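The records we work with from here on pair a chain with its fold. Taken together, the tokens spell out the fold as the letters spell out the chain. The record below shows the convention in full.
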Amino acid sequence: MGQLRRLEPFSRMYGWDRGTPVDRYYIEAFLKEHSGRIAGRVLEISENTYTYRFGGTAVTSSDVLHYDNPSPPATITGDLTDAPHIPSDSFDCVIITQTLMLIYDVPAALRTIHRILKPGGTVLVTQAGLSQIADPEWRHTWYWGFTQASSQRLFQDAFPGGWVEARAYGNMLSTIAFLAGLGFEELDKRELDHVDPDYQMLIGVIATKAGGPPA
């Protein structure tokens, strides 16, 4: 950390080549905290790793949505902004990690998510706040960096009558480490767990559709 007076990051791979990216620490902490929601029929984007890691035997059915690749593990192909082929009121839980910043029409995607959830169903979302944009495959469609306030407002608009909580993760040190490409293993737990709302590196959102038991 004494070598930050530099123009090149330590890694342009978010820290994967040094360990595990710092944002993964917060993503997995968020999903672990809300793992009781990952049950029944679950939809995850691109893969179902988190579905089974955090839902385990509570998951009775797993679906994977991929934008344009119908190959396994995908079970559904489609665009969240326009997916009439996905039946309404279908899923108990939807998991969307680090995806919404790549979708230009976020409100349309949230309308789809709300529609395909069962009444009382929950979406668990993580999205980028302050981040590297280092992957050339994603750079041209990386449209947004979110805040706690913008996330709360977007999901409240999309989930009328439901329950929404947006939470920020990160602090000055962990955000600098992530931007510089360090792995989270290079920080200690105290440094990672401190939350400073002035440095919103990652946003986690839990939103429950109206019509089920109280959140």
Summary: The mean pLDDT is 95. Residues 22-33 form the longest helix (12 residues). The helical segments are 22-33, 49-55, 106-116, 136-139, 148-158, 172-180, 189-193.
